[in-house]
Amino acid sequence: HLDDHQVFARIFVSSDGGPIRTLITGREPHATGRFVSVKAGYRALPWESMRGELPLLQLAEVASPVQSVMVQPHRLEMFVEGVKKPLIYFPDVSLSVSRRFADALDDGATFARAVADWGPSEAAEEHVTLIVEAKTNDDRRIHDDVYQSKLRLAHEVYERLGWRFVQVVDVTGPDWRPIAKAVHEIGLDRDVVVSPHETQMVQESLMTGPATLADVSATIGGGAIALQKLAALHVRRLISIDLRGRLALESLVRPMTYSGRAPA
């Protein structure tokens, strides 16, 4: 059994900090595409699963506890005692996330539920690296003992680095539906331009605590354009809009009092 053997590992990353492989060749028998992510420095991130990786990226982009996003972040080679060839693993996604968010996942919360329940803290927010394996319910690898054994070994390697690991199955499950509309609407406006003066006005309006979306948008002129700018500020983690329920003028907006730093 592989889990009972000593394991040595090494990690290879791309020289430009982007995906270690691009995935898309044009010959795939399924839908593929690219997702332009603000949290990835406006990179066009490749995805190869419309029901697995794409909604995960869309949710991570809008999730306040997620600081940065990268797909196919590295190649992990694991050398197992007694096995001639190394086990190769390409993780789907790497995220820099709030430690509280990672703890919620460890405690059994779904990815969508942990996003919805998370709120900014008044204290300095520590961030950790979270490696995510995205799966759909019909993925045969969920019940493949050999593949799952490889994931357990990868998990062990990541733990030794101080990283977290989670296998997300069906990110668009029941906990996704209550926040789906808000995630979609905010995500559409993620690249809207906001001036430094407008950003300052919004942040000053939240200095005394949370306020409604209507009140905050009024500080920069109100209307649809102001709401689009608030959505962009949310994605950039300068404010945090409550995603629970239908996005409305009564939705609560919180200040992101501390943005944290990405792990080294």
Q: How would you describe this protein?
A:
With 264 residues, the chain is α+β, with helices and mostly antiparallel strands. It is 31% helix and 23% strand. It contains eight helices and twelve strands. The chain has helices at 53-62, 99-106, 111-117, 145-160, 177-188, 196-205, 213-218, 223-235; strands at 7-12, 33-37, 43-47, 66-71, 75-80, 87-89, 93-98, 127-135, 164-169, 211-212, 239-241, 252-255. Helix 1 (53-62) packs across helix 5. The longest helix is centred in the middle third of the chain and has 16 residues, at 145-160.
- Bin the helical content: 25-40%
Largest sheet: 4 strands, mixed
Provide the residue-averaged pLDDT: 90
Q: What overall geometry do the principal axes of the alpha carbons give?
A: elongated
Give start-end ranges of low-pLDDT stretches: 258-264
Radius of gyration: 20 Å
Give the distance, in angstroms, between the N- and C-terminal Cα atoms: 34 Å
Series of H and E elements: EEEHEEEEHHEHEHHEHHEE
The class by helix and strand makeup works out as alpha+beta
DSSP strand tally: 12
Please list the strands of the largest sheet in the order they lie side by side.
Answer: 4-7-8-9
Helical stretch tally: 8
Residue share in β-strands: 15-25%
Short summary:
This protein has helices at 53-62, 99-106, 111-117, 145-160, 177-188, 196-205, 213-218, 223-235; strands spanning 7-12, 33-37, 43-47, 66-71, 75-80, 87-89, 93-98, 127-135, 164-169, 211-212, 239-241, 252-255. By secondary structure, it is an alpha+beta fold.
